[in-house]
Each structure stands twice: as C-alpha cells, then as structure tokens.
Specification:
Layout lengths: L2 E7 L3 H12 L6 E2 L5 E5 L5 E5 L9 E7 L3 H10 L3 E9 L3 E8 L2 E8 L6
Parallel strand pairs: 1-4, 5-8
Antiparallel strand pairs: 1-5, 2-3, 3-4, 6-7, 7-8
Length: 120
C-alpha cells in the first residue's frame, strides 16, 4: 500500500505548514485550486501532503490518507462490499488523476488513481 496523498483539513493552514516546515523541513507551495486550495509538499515516498482549510461550513478538520490504486472503480466497489459508504464517488482532478472518499469504521478513507500518461 502506498499513500499517494495525505490530506490535512485544518482551521489554521499557515500554522500547520509552518510546524511541518520547522519539524520536518517540508517545503509547501502556493495553494493549488485543483486540490481545494491545499498547499502541498512532496512526501519522501513520492506522494504529496496537502494542507487546506475546510471548503464549506459542514466540513470539519480531518486527516485523510488517499491510497494509490490502479483501478479506482474496482477499489470503491471493494470498499462498499466490505461495508464502506461512498461519500464522494470517483471524480477527476485535472492534472492529478481521480479520487474518491468513503466512510468506514468511523474514519474517512481516500482512494487515488494517478493520471495515465497522455491523459488529463
């Protein structure tokens, strides 16, 4: 299993980015509108960490890992078969691939399929 994207939704983006920069040497870029205005940094395994503010009043702070898969639709089907509930069905993220979110066991889980070369 590989984390493709680790999403941190927080009420204080700048403080979280500053803490990670100081503690781990992370270098965060400017907000990326394609990722909900997350500021991102590269993880050592090649994935990304994104820190962003809630996108609407109902969204609360959360840490959500997105696991990389080859077949996002198959992975969502497997999560549902195992008792998960789809919160966000597979959706495109231009330039990044596709993602989906499901709830299971009181946690939010993400699935990420990277863009294929020559697409998106």
């Amino acid at each position: 299993m590989k984390i493709k994207y680790l999403e941190i939704v927080t009420n204080d983006v700048e403080a979280v980015c500053a803490a990670y920069a100081a503690a781990y040497g992370a270098s965060f870029g400017e907000a990326d509108a394609r990722l909900g205005n997350a500021r991102t940094a590269t993880l050592s395994g090649g994935g990304l960490i994104g820190v962003r503010a809630p996108m609407h009043a109902g969204e609360t702070p959360v840490v959500r890992p997105y696991w990389e898969v080859d077949d996002i639709h198959g992975a969502v089907a497997a999560a549902v078969a195992a008792g998960g509930t789809v919160a966000v069905p597979p959706m495109p993220l231009p330039g990044h691939g596709s993602c989906a979110i499901y709830f299971q066991g009181g946690n939010e889980h993400g699935i990420w399929q990277s863009a294929k070369e020559g697409s998106q």
